[in-house]
């Protein structure tokens, strides 16, 4: 089994705590050797996932929590954002958002689809799990690691 360090945080499901997680990600990713651009990608993707949990999972409930787990591997950082709020239907959200085309201005895109699109475009892998809430699992590889691994696999 691959060794990794694990960090877990719980924050109140309130927008003002998103910055705390952004700072945490920045510190963790910097320590791991991620460059500035990849750290920014990680911060934006995690912020979107947390903001979705705050806005959609708990709506008017004051007592919601969002759990953020970080798994630090030698070649990648995995960030998992979980809530126990009301689930949303991913396919319905995608359908309502409609297809993304570059000629559509962002302000005209329907709410709900852009956050997920942004997360998927910034991260190397994204998985979503439903179980009495939503868990968004996002993976970002250290620069070049994923390419080297895939090249070795393809050539053997």
How would you portray this structure in words?
It is a single chain. This protein has 156 residues and is an alpha+beta fold. It has one domain: Histidine kinase-like ATPase, C-terminal domain (Heat Shock Protein 90), CATH 3.30.565.10. It is built from 5 helices and 5 strands. The protein has a 5-stranded antiparallel sheet, with helices on one face. A hairpin with a 3-residue loop joins strand 2 (65-72) and strand 3. Helix 1 (18-32) packs antiparallel against helix 2 and helix 2 runs antiparallel to helix 4. The protein is globular. Mean pLDDT is 78; it is low at 96-112 and 147-153.
What's the structural blueprint in terms of helices and strands?
Blueprint: E1 5-12, H1 18-32, H2 36-57, E2 65-72, E3 76-83, H3 90-97, H4 113-122, E4 125-130, E5 134-141, H5 145-155
Antiparallel strand pairs: 1-2, 2-3, 3-5, 4-5
Offer a quick outline of the entry:
This protein is an alpha+beta fold. It has five helices and five strands, in the order E-H-H-E-E-H-H-E-E-H.
Which percent band covers the strand fraction? Answer: 15-25%
CATH architectural type: 2-Layer Sandwich
Averaged pLDDT, please? 78
Work out the number of β strands: 5
Number of domains: 1
The CATH superfamily is: Histidine kinase-like ATPase, C-terminal domain
Share of helix among residues?
Answer: 40-55%
The stretches of 5 or more residues where confidence is low (pLDDT under 50) are: 96-112, 147-153
Largest sheet: 5 strands, antiparallel
List the total number of helices: 5
What is the end-to-end distance? Answer: 22 Å
Taken from the alpha-carbon principal axes, the silhouette is globular
Order of helices and strands: EHHEEHHEEH
Question: Nearest-angstrom radius of gyration?
Answer: 16 Å
By CATH, the topology is: Heat Shock Protein 90
Coarse structural class: alpha+beta
Any idea of the CATH class? Answer: Alpha Beta
GO molecular function: ATP binding; protein serine/threonine kinase activity; sigma factor antagonist activity
Protein name: Serine-protein kinase RsbW
EC number: 2.7.11.1
Domain Histidine kinase/HSP90-like ATPase: 11-140
